[in-house]
Amino acid sequence: MVVVNPSISSRQIEAESGISRRRALSVLKKHKFRPYTIRKQQQLLPTDPERRLDFCNWYLQQIEQDQLFFKNIIWTDESYVSSAGIFNRHNKHYWSEDNPHQTVDVQNQGRFGFTVWCALYNNRILAYQLYDDNLNGQRSKFP
């Protein structure tokens, strides 16, 4: 069953085959199948790899000129928390003899939620802000 559907759960195996869940797990273990957890990853755009490489090269040049360059950066980031973006990775497995490094692409922003924005400098939180919706070019990130 796991060869046909590697994402099947042990409970589904029990329900569809009639053998106990414990027995199904025992058979899978005997045949060296393991349940690998699927990881979420941010979906990349075609232009992203080149832009990331350009930034990395620029950053390395700055560090060559000043080894403490990173201490003079105000780091900012935001995260959108959404009810539509729920992904419980504990309930998602991929049965295989070898780790396939399985991932699933996820969409950003759901129908409702909130955004958390934060600024860090020298290992300290400078500011943070909660927003009721998405950040975009129309809205300033700074409080």
Automatic annotation (TrEMBL):
Gene3D superfamilies, per database record: Ribonuclease H-like superfamily/Ribonuclease H (3.30.420.10)
Show the InterPro entries listed in the entry.
RNaseH_sf
One MF annotation (Gene Ontology) recorded for this entry: nucleic acid binding
Q: What PANTHER family does UniProt report for this protein, alphabetically?
A: HTH PSQ-TYPE DOMAIN-CONTAINING PROTEIN (PTHR47326:SF1), TRANSPOSABLE ELEMENT TC3 TRANSPOSASE-LIKE PROTEIN (PTHR47326)
Could you tell me what this protein is called? Transposase
Its organism's taxonomic lineage begins at: Eukaryota, Metazoa, Ecdysozoa, Arthropoda, Hexapoda
